[in-house]
Amino acid sequence: MDTIKTGIKSLDKKRKGGLRGGSLTVIAGRPGMGKSSFVFQLAGNIAECGKIVLLFSLEMDEPLVRKRMSMQGFEAYENNVIVYDEPAVSVEYITQKATGLDNIDAIFVDYIQLMRGKYNKLSSCKQEVEEIVSGLKLLAEKMNVPIVVVSQLGRNADSVTDESELIASVRKTGFREQDTDWIIFPPHMLN
Fold first, then answer.
1. Residue 31 scores a pLDDT above 60
2. Total domain count, the chain
3. Beta bridge mates, 147
4. Residue 67 near residue 36, CB atoms below 8 Å
5. How far apart are CA 146 and CA 62, in angstroms?
6. CATH number, position 67
7. Across the chain, what does the average pLDDT equal?
8. Cβ-based neighbours of 63, under 8 Å, separated by 6 or more
9. Which end of the chain is more exposed for a tag (fewer CB within 10 A), N or C?
10. Which residues, in sequence order, are CB contacts of 12 under 8 Å at separation 6+?
């Protein structure tokens, strides 16, 4: 797989055609900034093009996800979006579900801080996120599909208006540069 168009022209142009197979993209922001709505928009746009999307929603149950996607105009494409709404899933769970299906084109996880690591007794939350991110990146590469994850930013992000400082704050939470291909922030964070 080369790239999948996101349906958002500015993003597709920046990424030279869309989301690349094997890539890990992070959508980062504070609570209430529209990260989940943005994920539903991307997943719906991809489904609208006839692609199959796996959406792991750790915060909302499937009926609510379907309702929100329907409100965004994607009801007709709901058969192309497979929703799993188990809380606190692991990379192994996502791998099992994803590799058990044929023709998966993209995977979305909303949101990563609600996932659990393989070793729940890691000494810090940052180490646990590093482990999860590395596992998701390996899965993206193995399946040659893009994986998009949502990440909550800490309170200190409210006062930051420079994109490089925001990227640094995402890195501090456990997203290592070698595993993260692209970081997207809700537009109003950079006003």
1. yes
2. 1
3. 24, 107
4. no
5. 22
6. 3.40.50.300
7. 82
8. none
9. C
10. 5, 6, 18
